[in-house]
Amino acid sequence: MVRAPGRVNIIGEHTDYNQGFVLPAAVDKQMLFAVSLNQENTIRLVAHDLNETFSIAADEVRRSDTAWANYILGVVAQLQERGVAVPGFDCAFGGNVPIGSGMSSSAAVECGIGYALNELLNAGLDKMELARAGQLAEHTYAGVMCGIMDQFASLFGKDGHVVRLDCRSLEYEYFPFDTQACRVVLCNSGIKHALADSEYNKRRQECERGVAILQQYHPEIQSLRDASPLQVKAHHDALGDLTYRRCLYVVEENQRVEAACRHLLAGELPQVGQLLYASHAGLRDNYEVSSQELDLLVELARPRPGVYGARMMGGGFGGCTINLVQAEHVADFVAYMSQAYEAQTGIKLETYETSIVDGVSTVGN
Ligand code: GAF
User: What is the residue range of 114's domain?
Assistant: First the structure.
């Protein structure tokens, strides 16, 4: 049996596929997998929470019409591409990572099955290769051109720490995060817009277009990671307003991740909180991946006592906001947010008070 957690991201949104910086952590919402080899040529899957099953020949793995199965089949295909012979196996899985909430339930599924098969087959892939396999499964079988943050966080999470990842070099550093003093509270808007995946892929293309234009002036710019806000501002006209705003958001967000790490180390949570608000404003106005409901949640949280900061989290177009809240104010915060959000939208608010846990591991024997 294997457990694979979902993740939060303190700051650094839409920076991973621009080879920039992110600051996620694995949290105590997780998927559980029971997996065994079955001595047949059949992969049999049971999605416990959906009460659905799926099976396919192990030597004929391909993309299926069953969306949830693709997260597993995509990883099997990635392992096969890496020379791992994957025989038939049985897998039952389920968990409590809310789907479509921006907490990476899909990455948890990819990382959990990748980890389980790697162990069962003694395939010897390291955790970074498993993260990459999960990311590419998402590209090829789910059609979302995601970065590596979610899979990385699910695999590399560490109890009591957030982790800053350099998405170019894949070097990472853990920073202690005391969730007893500062609670990480998620507010689930309850909305997931149908266009989320196509808009996500579009943002990635817009960033690539921006890089191609900036390169004409600064050949050393290989990704937005290499550009500064000044450079982007200097080429506003050449970029055109839309691409300009996309690029400006990304280069500013990269700087915010670096600043957030400095403030975290110095114990300066109010400053970290201000960076979260700035991140949200950029995601809303320049990157345009927020939604009315997410904006409302941030504005409701902002004046509440004990709130350091809040912003939308993950890919956007719905899902959760992340809120950094002083422990003694959490109960009041949750009560107020639930009442106010439902009063204004008619949607019942789900909130999650998360703790930060270790990444993927086996459970029991
Ligand atoms: C989604 C993606 F999967 C991540 O790679 C990342 O880009 C995130 O959106 C936005 O920061 O979760």
Answer: 2-177+358-362
pTM above 0.95? yes
Residue 110 CA to residue 131 CA, distance in Å, equals 8
Whether 146 maps to a domain, the answer reads yes
CA distance 94 to 77: 21
CB 184 within 8 A of CB 354: yes
As for the ipTM of the complex, it is 0.99
Residue pLDDT, tens place only, 279-336: 999 999 999 999 999 999 999 999 999 999 999 999 999 999 999 999 999 999 999 9
Give the CATH number, domain containing residue 131.
3.30.230.10
Active site annotation includes 295: no
Q: How far apart are CA 316 and CA 337, in angstroms?
A: 20
Tens of pLDDT, residues 184-197: 999 999 998 777 88
DSSP state of 142: I
Name residues contacting ligand 1 (CB within 6 A): 13-14, 16-17, 104, 146-147, 149-150, 314-315
By most ligand atoms within 8 Å of CB, the mutation choice from 9, 14, 204 for ligand 1 is 14
Ligand 1 centroid, distance to 148 Cα (angstroms):
8
Number of domains in the chain: 1
Residue 228 forms part of a structural domain? no
Q: Compute the distance from residue 145 Cα to the ligand 1 centre, in Å.
A: 9
Percent share of the chain, pLDDT over 90? 96
